[in-house]
Amino acid sequence: MKNSFLFLLILYFVTKPALLLANEAEIWLEKEIDIILNAYQNENLPNENRFLMVEQTINNNFAGAGIAKFVVGKAWNSANKETKKDYIKHFKRHLALNIASMMQGYSHQKYSLINSRFDEKSKVTMIDMEIYSEASSIVVTWRLKESKNRFFVIDLLVADISLVVTKRSEFNSMLKTVDYNLSNFNEKLKSQNEKSYEKIIK
Q1: DSSP string of 142-198, one letter each residue
Q2: Which helix (H) or strand (E) holds 134?
Q3: Whole domain around residue 28: which residue ranges?
Q4: Using CA atoms, how far apart are residues 88 and 3, in angstroms rounded to an integer?
Q5: Dihedral-angle region of residue 180 (phi above 0 means left; psi in -120 to 50 means alpha; beta otherwise)
Q6: Residue 28 dihedral angles phi and psi, to the nearest 5°
Q7: Which of 73, 112, 134, 185 is the most buried (most CB within 10 A)?
Q8: Can you tell me the distance from the alpha carbon of 188 to that of 177, in angstroms, rounded to the nearest whole number?
Q9: pLDDT in tens, 166-184
Q10: What is the count of structural domains for the chain?
């Protein structure tokens, strides 16, 4: 009995920091999600303002530079500093436009954070969010990492499909058409963003 109690005590102190981190991450994530949802619940808010709120949230809370670098693979290494800087800017807007486009189908669905866990090895917190309406539901998994005493989103899994991996595949196809030249790719991405932006603000 004494040994069992000692084991439980050790287990508590080992898992407590991970549980606390997961709870802090949930509180943070819920707050950031609600900012965007509140914007889309406000029917008097112009589409452009809604998008700008999404873009600001993406810029503040996604590990944009790290994700951007990963999704262009080998094209990153051969680019100069200015080209990389421009690309990160275009990528962040591209990401914001993608999420804003998904939000256009929002019709006051509900959500709940149903599970969270912390991976000690990778130092990544994963939070499952169920989005549901009367007819259906879908589970989205947020992958968060703490850096400089705050959280950043490093990936988003929709029905177990990674946003980051999907973007890497999509961008690789586009990069092939410009022989993996990041400067030329920037022009393509900028043009794509402009077209997407026009659709979003209508």
Answers
A1: EEEEEETTEEEEEEEEETTEEHHHHHHHHHHHHHHTTTT-HHHHHHHHHHHHHHHHH
A2: none
A3: 2-201
A4: 54
A5: left
A6: -65, -45
A7: 185
A8: 10
A9: 999 999 999 999 999 999 9
A10: 1
Calpha distance 186→170 (Å, rounded) = 14
Rounded to the nearest 10 degrees, how much is the dihedral formed by the CA atoms of 137, 143, 144, 145? 170
Q: In which region does residue 159 sit, left (phi positive, over 0), alpha (psi from -120 to 50) or beta (all else)?
A: left
| pTM (global) more than 0.90 | no
List beta partners, residue 156.
142
37 to 34, 40, 42, 103: CA distances (angstroms): 5, 5, 9, 9
Longest dimension (CA), the chain: 69
Q: Alpha-carbon distance 38 to 98, whole Å?
A: 18
pLDDT (mean) for 198-202: 88
Secondary structure letter of residue 62 according to DSSP: B
Nearest residue to 112 (alpha-carbon basis) of 128, 124, 126: 128
pLDDT the model gives residue 65: 93
Task: Supply angle C-alpha 33, 39, 43, rounded to 5.
Answer: 145
CATH number of the domain that residue 119 is part of: 3.10.450.710
Q: Reading across the β-sheet that carries 161-162, which strands appear in turn?
A: 110-119, 124-132, 137-147, 150-158, 161-162
pLDDT tier at 127 (50, 70, 90 boundaries)? very high
